[in-house]
Amino acid sequence: MRILLQFPEGLKDKAMKYAKELELLGNEVFISASPTFGACDLALDEAKNIKADKLVHFGHAEFHHVDFNVEYVHYTIDANLDILSESLKLLEPYKNIGIVTTIQHIHQLDAIKLFYEKNGKNVIIGKPYGFAKQKGQILGCDIGSSANIDREVDAHVYFGGGMFHPLGALLNTKKPFLIIEPFQGYVGFIDSYREKYRKISRGKILSSINAKKFGILVSTKNGQHNMQLANIMKKRIEESGCEAGILVANTFDFNSIDNMMEFDALVNTACPRIGIDDNDRTRVPLLSSNELMEVLKIKKETIALRNKNNI
Q1: How many CB atoms lie within 10 A of CB 211?
Q2: Model's pTM, two decimal places?
Q3: Rounded Cα distance, 224 and 201, in Å
Q4: Cα(16)–Cα(14) distance, rounded to whole angstroms?
Q5: Are 36 and 49 in contact (CB under 8 A)?
Q6: What digits encode the pLDDT tens for the residues 131-182?
Q7: What is the percent of the chain where pLDDT is above 90?
Q8: Nearest to 221 by CA among 265, 252, 258, 260
Q9: Which of 17, 19, 30, 169 is nearest to 100 (CA)?
Q10: Which residue, among 105, 121, 140, has the nearest Cα to 278 in the 3D structure?
Q11: Helical H runs in the chain?
């Protein structure tokens, strides 16, 4: 069998190990050298171009069904749970807590839940919107396991590495948000980021009020392609009297996009985290679809006010 292996950055150093194991079983094995941002970013073009019989994607769970033979290999990490005790003092005021984590630690969720229940907490595990497949699991683009229980809990707890996953959940909830980072040994609330990103969002909107030409980003990645939304946004922009062009790429190179000097603002329809994480990489404001609608609303109100006052 001809097999293409695909690894996220953190697992690429294990590529040859898995390749050799499969070769010993009589397979012809190739390794994708492209970056991947998750199961929304499968190496389908590479697999088809080399006529692979199967793509083996490591480190992520299935995102959505694709018309290709894909095997998903989860990579679990047993993090030390002793750090949980450090969170009890901080969580003392909160009786009802929601817990979320990533696919790498989902097998530890029951143990984490039991720990807090033994310490007098009522633990609620939420359901994702659909891209994530496990209760309590969050992705950068699926924070349903937190957002769906925001009204029921007094505080949220994220257990896992880094800020990428909890940041999305934080920005879509209102309750206190604690992260427990077992690899860095950090336990603390990250609520201050809500105001920080609210100000950034408002700044992008206000900076785009006078924009005349908008570039709409459309990704060709299997789980990020949304031409329907792009066409809706293009229509809304043109109805406002402005111009719009649809920019298509697999992975966006913002240095290259910045060479398109005609555009006064960009609109993201791909991974929702692009507008959060990559905003400082662009020459012009990088808007989400919701931020664009706010821009167009202000433009409309401004025109109406000018007409009323004969300005």
Answers
A1: 21
A2: 0.87
A3: 22
A4: 6
A5: no
A6: 888 999 999 889 999 999 999 999 999 999 989 899 999 999 999 999 999 9
A7: 84
A8: 252
A9: 169
A10: 140
A11: 15-24, 44-49, 109-118, 144-147, 164-171, 192-207, 227-239, 254-257, 274-277, 289-308
